[in-house]
């Protein structure tokens, strides 16, 4: 028998709910990876992220900017030039993303097998 979980194991005043880790969402990790080699314009980001809508890309970039991972720079003049770049805080995520990608490459077949087994074991409703 295992030891019961402590009902106080998560401190109610812990700010973990405020943590800005959005890396697990569908687009954030890919956006950060696109910015790894330097500043990019919105239209440049849309090339490798071809399945993201402009609205979702804007929302994701704003969230990354709000949390301090990305800086938006607008240059004066016509036409207006807006670029996004990683902050040092954003750059600190690159190693974590590399580790997550390596883990996924090593274990993807196991995850897919588990999903297939789970979907095959369910009875139709």
Global geometry: extended
Question: What structural class should be given to the helix and strand makeup?
Answer: mainly alpha
Into which percentage range does the β-strand content fall? 5-15%
Distance between the termini: 35 Å
Organism: Streptomyces misionensis
Domain HTH hxlR-type: 14-112
Pfam family, one: HxlR
GO molecular function, one term: DNA binding
Which tags fit this structure?
single chain, 125 residues, mainly alpha, Arc Repressor Mutant, subunit A, 3-stranded antiparallel beta sheet, 5 helices, extended
How would you describe the overall organization of this protein?
This is Helix-turn-helix transcriptional regulator. Keywords: DNA-binding, Transcription, Transcription regulation. Pfam families: HxlR. The protein has 125 residues and is mainly α. It is 46% helix and 11% strand. The protein is built from five helices and three strands. It has helices at 28-34, 42-46, 54-66, 88-91, 94-121, and strands at 40-41, 70-75, 81-86. The chain has a three-stranded antiparallel β-sheet. The protein is extended, with a radius of gyration of 20 Å. The model has no long low-confidence stretch (mean pLDDT 83).
């Amino acid at each position: 028998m295992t030891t019961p979980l402590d009902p106080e194991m998560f401190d109610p005043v812990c700010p973990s709910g405020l943590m800005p880790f959005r890396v697990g969402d569908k687009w954030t990790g890919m956006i950060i990876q696109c910015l790894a080699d330097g500043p990019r314009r919105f239209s440049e980001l849309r090339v490798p992220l071809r399945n993201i809508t402009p609205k979702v890309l804007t929302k994701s970039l704003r969230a990354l900017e709000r949390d301090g991972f990305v800086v938006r720079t607008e240059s004066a003049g016509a036409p207006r030039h807006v670029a996004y770049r990683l902050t040092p805080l954003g750059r600190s995520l690159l190693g974590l993303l590399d580790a997550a990608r390596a883990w996924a490459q090593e274990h993807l077949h196991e995850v897919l097998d588990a999903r297939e087994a789970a979907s095959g074991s369910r009875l139709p409703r």
